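Box S1 | Example of a co-folding query
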Amino acid sequence: MKIKLGIIGFGGMGKWHAENAPRAGVEITAVCDVDEQKRREAIGSGIRTYQSAEELLADYEVNTVILTVPNFLHKEMCLKAAKAKKNVIAEKPAAMSVKELDEMEEACKKAGVFFTVHQNRRWDKDMLIVKKAFDEQLLGNIFTIESKLHSGNGYMHEWHIYKKFGGGMLYDWGVHLIDQILFMMPEAKIKSVYADIKNILHEEVDDYFKILLKMDNGITVHIELSTYILEYQPRWLAAGDKGTLIVKDFGCEGSLLKTGKLLKRLPPRITETKAGPTRQFAPVPPGGIERKMLPKVETNWSDFYHNIAEVLDGKAEPLIKITEVRRVLLVMEAIWKSSESGEAIKFEEMNR
Ligand SMILES: NC(=O)c1ccc[n+]([C@@H]2O[C@H](COP(=O)([O-])OP(=O)(O)OC[C@H]3O[C@@H](n4cnc5c(N)ncnc54)[C@H](O)[C@@H]3O)[C@@H](O)[C@H]2O)c1
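Box S1 (continued) | Returned holo structure for nicotinamide-adenine-dinucleotide
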């Protein structure tokens, strides 16, 4: 089925879909936005424009909508779209809570329309490199994975700085970072969740979090995000008993590190500090570590829309399943609980 897309909310992400979805064979049929200026930006491109979601949903040519309005409006728009018998793609975070997501899923099921979420960071090359190392056991038994995102800009914008609109970094990037980990190791169960959420520069919403997920495969996942740390750390670090992998940034600079043969023949060095000696924490001698290229991965974001078209034709299973989206929201709810109590939360996996 050709996706004839109606874009609800023509701000940053609405425009992004208008520009990028056509290369996946999607026709942009209509857009709506309450802001006249935003609508004007769509005129001239041949796309029909509407002032309200209701008007767009009445456009019989639109068969699928994407919800690119601020987070707090996703549920409302999804329920309206389901009622109008349109397939629904929600931007992330799909909903503000598990309860909201359940209502949205129920409404779409009842209406017989397809429902999925734009978890586009599953196509990020940096994450897929770590996933490949995990899948192919390139590091032996992995004991820790660190997924870190730091900015020195101290910057959050517009509705993102207000709670009532669904602002905050956990809803913004947290949802991606958790989804990436659960996508990377779908078989692993989460044993416990510990989190610390802070407001560093923004009064109303979170702009820093540290999350520890203890998985039943022996890996402890450390997710950290800050909008204000002035020296960046690698985007990814994964360490196993046979090597370490570093991916520095979205550009995928980095290396796979292995113990060099030379190290076995070198006597341990002692580093003297002012207060005493250390042998374990002396620098590795030259030649002791081999630096290899990162594994190669291919990724094509267009597969997100190609998959939806195939699902609508009954030819494929959805790549982004609501059960997965729900699990991420359950983890987020455990994260809030842990941060509030200061304690680790035992995570109960649900089979749905
Ligand atoms: N997947 C990603 O990589 C990614 C990236 C950025 C944003 N997002 C998500 O996309 C969504 C939109 O974020 P954004 O950054 O584009 O926000 P934005 O503020 O740039 O755009 C939102 C638009 O919605 C319009 N709007 C508000 N209320 C409306 C209503 N009732 N009816 C119609 N239009 C309405 C606003 O006028 C605005 O133009 C959010 O859920 C956000 O989390 C996803």
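Residues 322-341 form the longest helix (20 residues). The longest strand covers residues 142-150.
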